[in-house]
Specification:
Shape: globular
Helix content: 40-55%
Largest sheet: 5 strands, antiparallel
Strand content: 5-15%
Structural class: alpha+beta
Strand order of the largest sheet: 1-2-3-4-5
Radius of gyration: 19 Å
Number of helices: 10
Order of helices and strands: HHHEEEEHHHHEHHH
Number of strands: 5
Length: 214
């Protein structure tokens, strides 16, 4: 990932169209290396999960229409994998950025119906989810469950519900950060795949919640 990190450091310091036009070859080299990484990761992922073998890679161009920051380019390169079939829920995301690389996954701002179903399932039986997020493996690798939370109770639920700490979540996210040294190491792709594999117990519980009719 040397070319990717090198290019991203340059675009951070020279975030303008003129510089990118003059250095298009460097950009294409970095983009091709990122594509190669994603393809290698796809081969590892499809061996242990039913994901779309064609990863989605995000464009470097920023949408500045509604942003105060008018710099035209992202200072990161990222992509995602979609799980296949309605029974397998959750999405995988990988993000490379100097000093801020990470992998993530979960359920970001689920639609209203799905969020209500998750909350109803948690209210009825939170133990499967707690067992996962309180496990030594989860805590050692991901730390805590992440995601935006309500400050008060969600509508239709009681503030003294024993599972109110989980019911407040609006998104259910897990993530793992990587140093630049780890990104540049030859086993980075295997490490990202390991991280995605470690998400599976979390995805399994959430998929069960989202596909069970109460």
């Amino acid at each position: 990932m040397k070319e990717v990190i090198g290019f991203l450091k340059e675009i951070r310091a020279n975030n303008n169209r003129e510089w990118l036009e003059a250095n298009k070859k460097q950009f294409e080299t970095a983009k091709n290396q990122m594509k190669g990484f994603a393809q290698e990761l796809s081969g590892l992922m499809t061996a242990h999960d039913n994901v779309d073998p064609k990863p989605k890679l995000f464009r470097i161009y920023r949408d500045v229409r509604f942003s105060k920051d008018k710099t035209p380019f992202k200072t990161s390169m990222s992509g995602s994998f979609t799980r296949l079939t309605p029974a397998l829920r959750g999405g995988y995301y990988f993000h490379v950025e100097p000093g801020a690389s990470f992998l993530g996954g979960g359920f970001w701002q689920p639609e209203k119906v799905d969020l209500m179903l998750i909350r109803q399932q948690i209210q009825q039986d939170a133990e499967p989810l707690r067992e996962v997020i309180n496990s030594k493996q989860f805590k050692a690798y991901f730390g805590e469950l992440g995601g935006e939370q309500l400050k008060t109770k969600p509508k239709g639920f009681e503030a003294d519900d024993p599972n109110i700490d989980l019911l407040r979540y609006k998104s259910f996210i897990v993530s793992k950060s990587f140093t630049d040294k780890e990104v540049l190491a030859p086993d980075f792709c295997e490490n990202v795949n390991e991280g995605f594999r470690n998400m599976r117990p979390f995805f399994n519980v959430m998929s069960e919640y989202l596909t069970t009719i109460l």
